[in-house]
Design a protein that fits this description.
Number of strands: 3
Strand content: 5-15%
Number of helices: 5
Shape: elongated
Distance between the termini: 46 Å
Largest sheet: 3 strands, antiparallel
Radius of gyration: 20 Å
Structural class: mainly alpha
């Protein structure tokens, strides 16, 4: 397991920083569900100026979560999910922690139910 602290200077840190924005998470969701899309189509989902939206795309591109492909005059963006593996790897111990806590709670509640019967 990687024990490098998560900071914005690391690859991991850049991915986490990118995911901190609800706008960027929504862009990733749109790309996951609908596949590659032109910038204009993606931008149409958000109520913000085009330069602001372009900045969100730049952040996603620089941390490797999206790839830009030029087709003629259009720029298409496509999801690159590989960096999300780092997030999953970091979250895994917490998932296990909560699974164990919920299992212990289930045991206590089952015991309480048995006592009441």
């Amino acid at each position: 397991m990687n024990t490098t602290p998560i900071g914005t200077g690391t690859s991991e840190g850049r991915v986490f920083a990118a995911l901190a924005s609800p706008v960027r998470r929504e862009v990733l969701r749109l790309l996951r569900e609908r596949g590659p899309q032109p910038v204009a189509e993606l931008a149409g989902h958000f109520d913000m100026a085009r330069p602001s939206f372009s900045e969100h795309l730049r952040v996603l591109r620089e941390c490797g979560l999206v790839r830009e492909n030029k087709v003629g005059r259009q720029r298409f963006y496509e999801l690159e999910a590989a960096p999300l593996f780092e997030v999953q790897e970091w979250l895994h111990p917490y998932e296990r922690f909560w699974r164990d806590k919920l299992s212990a709670l289930r045991t206590v509640l089952d015991e309480m139910e048995d006592e009441e019967s």
